[in-house]
Amino acid sequence: MKKIFLAVLVVGLFGLNAHAQDTVSNDTDFNKWQARFRVAGVIPSPGDDLDGADVDISTTVVPELDFTYFFTKHWAAELILATTKHDVEVGETDLGYVWLLPPTLNLQYHFYAGDFKPYVGAGVNYTIFYGEDSGDVVGMDYDNSVGFSFQAGIDYNLNDKWFINFDIKQLLLSTDVTVNTGDVMLPVDVDINPLIIGVGIGVKL
């Protein structure tokens, strides 16, 4: 009986050790780099920013590229790169268009459920405004600005290298704009706060 008990104990300890080694292997067996290419809809959510008038900023669809570096199997940092052009109107007044370049860095936590890998993230972005067109006014000047980013998404593995992705981000973004009407220089605080919804394909590097 004692020998049977010792044998069971040894087998049990061996099994626990094997499980622990498998867990360590799983925790360390991951690709440190991955890249995604998405097609993203950028949906601004401006408010009543110009003397109570509705500022209308157009929705656009753009390509988006991101690179992700994994510190561990669960924790990662993602750099998102894209540029987008938006038309701007206030009532019947055409304020032209402006290009936005908002590189965004998010810290992410990844979950694992078979071939599905959901994740959440948060971070910061720095938005550069360029290529302004003034429309019906004499001039438009946008200040570059810092904002915050919140993110959720999911990857689905097609195989060991390729995966598909769905991603949604909310940027909390505003800018100070100076409108030159020809008669006065009008300072305006414009909220943009775009919702960004993307789908695409990714590769583990």
Q: Could you explain the architecture of this structure?
A:
Residues 1-20 form the signal peptide. This is Outer membrane protein. This protein folds into 2 domains: 1-30; 32-204, Porin. The longest helix has 27 residues, at 2-28. The chain contains 1 helix and 15 strands. 13% of the residues lie in helices and 63% in strands. It is elongated. The protein has one helix at residues 2-28, and strands at residues 33-43, 48-50, 53-57, 60-70, 75-81, 84-90, 93-101, 104-110, 116-133, 139-142, 145-157, 162-172, 174-180, 185-191, 195-204. It is mainly beta and 205 residues long.
Looking at the overall shape, the CATH architecture of the largest domain is Beta Barrel
Going by helix content, strand content and strand pairing, the class is mainly beta
Distance between the termini: 54 Å
Q: CATH topology of the largest domain, which one?
A: Porin
Poorly predicted segments: 1-25
Strand order of the largest sheet: 1-4-5-8-9-11-12-15
Q: What summary fits the major beta sheet?
A: 8 strands, antiparallel, barrel
Rg (C-alpha, Å): 25 Å
Shape: elongated
Number of individual domains: 2
Mean pLDDT: 86
Strand content: over 45%
- Total helices: the number is 1
The CATH C-level class name of the largest domain: Mainly Beta
The count of strands amounts to 15
